[in-house]
Amino acid sequence: MVAAVVVAAVVSLAVCLVAVRTGPALGMVDEPDDPALKRHRRPAVPLGGVAVLAGLVAGWLVAEGIDWKLIALATVVVLVGLADDRIGLAPGVRLVLEVMIGVAVVAMGLVPLEMTRPLEAIVAVVLVVLVINAVNLFDGLDGLAGTSGAVAFSGVAALAWMRGLDPTLGAVMAAALAGFLLLNYHLARVFLGDNGSYLVGFMLAVGVMRTSPGGLGATFWVSGLIFGVFALDLSVTVLRRRLAGRPMFAGDRSHLYDRLHDRGWSIPVLAVAAGAAQVGFVAVTLLADASGPNPVVVAMLAGVGLLTVVALATVGGRSSPQASG
Question: Which H, E and C letters describe the chain, residue by residue?
């Protein structure tokens, strides 16, 4: 496993270095040309998803037992993201494609058998769509989504190991993101791009479902705590936009990280803080699992989460309708 982790990180970093040189020739450069919408200070290449996918494949090959069906669908996810990066897909088109990806996850048997029953299958599809969008929305500052994603996948690996399951997917994804992060921290030279955020969200949704072979029981909902900062930011942002009467897909500065940045938090500090918060979510997940998941614990955690979302969404004043999506 150590060799697989090292290979995943090295290959991801190597592809990032190549992307920095080839991205401009491919027309794949994100310019800091709109201060109201973009917070980066120099051009960056949005090809992080390609690098992370390469690292994932390389690391998994070293670990052996690679799931080629999952890799094939992950490649489709990256291609959809690249199309979105290059030409900009309409929200409706994106949603349809994301639903199709979720259906493919179930139809191809990429999740435990229990998740292919009618109700569970619907939950699986919705989960894939939600997590893809949650990560995409959270990817707004240098190092932010990558750091939180690396921690989340480390949690997936740890949870799988604790439950006697294969931790490879989580471990190599965390390593591939770590390699990518070496060029993604402020001032970033490579971004995840839509291709990367879609991949991270897709693999995170699949990874969490794979750690829960019992279907929609307490174990599954405890696993879902690993979504952590991604789920929290998505919930708060959607509720704020709803309360303000703004369209769900309209860009604004209602994200948690936007509001903290407006209050003077630097981008590097925000990336580290998000990672630390994600460590907390992973720790709670592992502790809840170790103590024996049960409906009472799940209900208590859900209640705390709901109160937190409502508090964050309703306290702190209005947000400017000008910036990140």
Answer: CHHHHHHHHHHHHHHHHHHHHHCHHHCCCECCCCCCCCCCCCCEECCHHHHHHHHHHHHHHHHCCCCHHHHHHHHHHHHHHHHHHHHCCCHHHHHHHHHHHHHHHHHCCCCCHHHHCHHHHHHHHHHHHHHHHHHHHHCCCCCHHHHHHHHHHHHHHHHHHHCCCCCHHHHHHHHHHHHHHCCCCCCCCECCHHHHHHHHHHHHHHHHHHCCCCCCCHHHHHHHHHHHHHHHHHHHHHHHHHHHCCCCCCCCCCCHHHHHHHCCCCHHHHHHHHHHHHHHHHHHHHHHHHCCCCHHHHHHHHHHHHHHHHHHHHCCCCCCCCCCC
Q: Are 62 and 2 in contact (CB under 8 A)?
A: no
Strand partners, 30: 44
CB 208 within 8 A of CB 227: yes
- Measured between alpha carbons, how far is 185 from 173 in angstroms, rounded to an integer? 18
> What residue type is assigned to position 67 of the chain?
D
What is the arithmetic mean of pLDDT over 132-161? 93
* Residue environment code for 151-162, b if the CB has 16+ CB neighbours within 10 A, otherwise e: bbbbbbbbbbee
Q: Residue 323's pLDDT is what?
A: 39
What is the structure's pLDDT at 244? 63
Spatial distance between the Cα atoms of 134 and 136, rounded to a whole number of angstroms: 5
pLDDT at residue 252 in the model:
57
What pLDDT is stored for residue 38 in this prediction? 52
What CA–CA distance (Å, rounded) separates 143 from 190? 10
Radius of gyration in angstroms for the set of CA atoms belonging to the chain, rounded to a whole number: 19
pLDDT of residue 307: 64
> Is the model's pLDDT at 235 over the cut of 70?
yes
- Residue 16's Cβ-side half-sphere holds a number of Cα atoms within 13 Å equal to 28
pLDDT at 325 over 50: no
Strand partners, 190: 45
